[in-house]
Amino acid sequence: MTAAPTVDVHAHVLLPEVEALVAGRPGLTAARALDARRNGAAALAVSGRMVRDRAPRMTDVPARIAAMDAQGVDVQLVSPSPSHYHSWAPRDTAEKVYRLANEATAAHCAGAPHRLRGLGLAPLQHPDLAVTALDHALGQGLLGVEISSHAPGRELSDPAYEPFWSRAEDSGALVFLHPFGCTLDERLDRWYLSNTVGQPTENAVALSHLIFSGVLDRHPELRILAAHGGGYLPTHIGRSDHAWSVRPDAGADCAHPPSSYLRRLWFDSLVHDPHVLRELVRVAGADRVLLGSDFPFDMGSDDPLGTLRSAGLADADFHAVRGANATALLDLA
Q1: I need a surface site. Which of 48, 50, 269, 278 has the fewest CB within 10 A?
Q2: Is the distance from CB of 270 to CB of 294 less than 8 angstroms?
Q3: Can you tell me which residues the record assigns to a coiled coil (predicted)?
Q4: According to DSSP H, which parts of 60-139 are helical?
Q5: Which domain holds residue 166?
């Protein structure tokens, strides 16, 4: 177990070429206005400075590797910044975005192929394009795709995504569920609630759609990794189990108690609380939790190994989360 590399499965790459592509296109202004309403002016000002300060670690491979070395991380699974989703984009723009994002992410990882693995993007606003985007990502040598918790007007339980789930299952691709934005909108526009409350909420809602709709029953071999420890769902899964057991509407499309599906998903360790991390390991299983830092954003952990150690896990569980689980899931051996 201790011989496995230390693997961080939640690390981001910034792709200026994607932003250059969408600049000036119809729809971008409205999308940015919505983002501003959801986050509030104070949060946007702080985030702008933070991203500028940390951008070199998301764009420059030597800077990234130096930071990884300082953290004691051997391998990162690199995914595009969720700001690159651009779920407002019409079909032609969305196709250009995912192709450019996939190719640019693959090129970034090629700068240190023994240290970096990558994920592409899939445009959920166009369900059929999500399938071709996944195939394109795999063709670039990426391990799968990153997706948001929903698309405008569509939840992950939407039947239109069935071909995407089928293709992901058949190909063995990894699907990294990472929300961007929260539909609670202006209710969260102060004190950075858009992230601190919004992201865990979006994770919980998206995973609940996958569980209660039967997506995980129909596609039992799906490999889904949830960011932010799955949000609120793992620590409140008892409420879901209770509803499933007492209400016929809650259990209509889900074959088993919701808690049982946690052991068929994977979760990163980024929960910011050692007690919550221990509970995540308990309910999902030590073999289903992977080290994640949200590198290099300020809402992540600059010392992911130290954060993991603070949970006081059993030695075998610590090394499983540190890297053995990811080594198996990503086939790094």
Answers
A1: 48
A2: yes
A3: none
A4: 61-71, 91-110, 127-139
A5: 7-329
